[in-house]
What we know:
This protein has helices spanning about 5, 25-30, 35-50, 60-75, 75-110, 110-125, 130-140, 145-170, 170-180, 185-220, 230-235, 240-270, and strands at about 10, 20, 25, 275. With about 280 residues, the chain is mainly α. The protein folds into 2 domains: about 5-50, no CATH class; about 75-275, MetI-like fold, CATH 1.10.3720.
Amino acid sequence: MSExxxxxxxxxxxxxxxxVGGRRLLPEFAGLRxxxxxxxxxxxxxxxxxxxxxxxxxxPGPDRIVLTAWGxxxxxxxxxxxxxxxxxxxxxxxxxxxxxxxxxxFAGFSRLGEDIVDKPMQMLRTxxxxxxxxxxxxxxxxxxxxKVLLVALGVAVPLYVNTFGGIRNVDVKLVExxxxxxxxxxxxxxxxxxxxxxxxxxxxxxxxxxxxxxxVIIAETVGANxxxxxxxxxxxxxxxTDVMLVCVAVYALLGxxxxxxxxxxxxxxLSWRTVYAG
Length: 278
């Protein structure tokens, strides 16, 4: 294979440094390229705010957002809210991952499991979180239980869909070869189906954790007395747009960090793959 063709196919790490102006970028600068668009948007936002094009009451500039965040860090309101939201997310995500994986594997490996699990999961997938919040509060009270369960539901359903789909989309020839090699059902499941479905499963995990943060936001804006969503609700009542934007930025950064952790997990578990990277 020629050098030009080989450059098109890489593993989980780039085969070559990206070209800029005919020269290779240094590794420490190549990682910054993905942030350029975000930096440009923030600079445009700052320019529009500084020149008076934006109403500071409706959309404060990024400098004011940073000052507000710093003040919230100093008075302790932001760290406390962040800890509460993270606790709810971790508890709900762990429960949702366990349920989603178990249901997806059960339905994926067995026709009986599909008949039992798939229809209820598909119905839950279409129900919005806002419709479940008042029911969860009525059933489980206003403490942590309904919030954690809402996050668990938000994580479990998309993870189930991707786990089930990943297992059922495995090439049947791989299973036939395993049967020819006289592998048992458990061995086929563990050594053939799960490794082949792992890319789809991890993609579902990325989507599920992102949806879990959305569930946290919804859970904390109704019947909560702490958390980032609680700060957001209070800021809305007092028309504190700067505090609202700080909360939104924190949620965005938390979602980005979660996605990054799953990408690291992908690199560790799928290091054997050679994929097209653009």
